[in-house]
User: Fold Deaminase from Alicyclobacillus ferrooxydans.
Amino acid sequence: MEQISTNQAPAAIGPYAQAVKIGQFVYTSGQIPLTADGTFVEGSIEDQITQVLANLDAVLTAAGCGRSDVVKATIFMTNLADFDKVNQAYGTFFGDHRPARSTVQVAGLPRGAQVEIELVAYQA
Assistant:
């Protein structure tokens, strides 16, 4: 197992890695709307999802893969009423690529985030 780390995304806020690589699989930890320097992105769900996706892009790059390698996404949201807004940003992020996905409403997320996403990628 190889731990993946980049300073282009926020450092882990607990005892875990930004991602781990096992064989050809990359598993990202959930990303919330923190900037690389650890600043929490306040504001709308659109502002938060934009930062989350930027963080995931940086972690994928550090692992040597990209969006087109993602096979599964899990989205955690505190309010499913924002589903369409998140779905729009997610669709723009992945373009024509369509990984499997689950979306779950949760009671709360770290730092009061409205959204958190984790990914699984496969490098052929």
The chain has two helices and six strands.
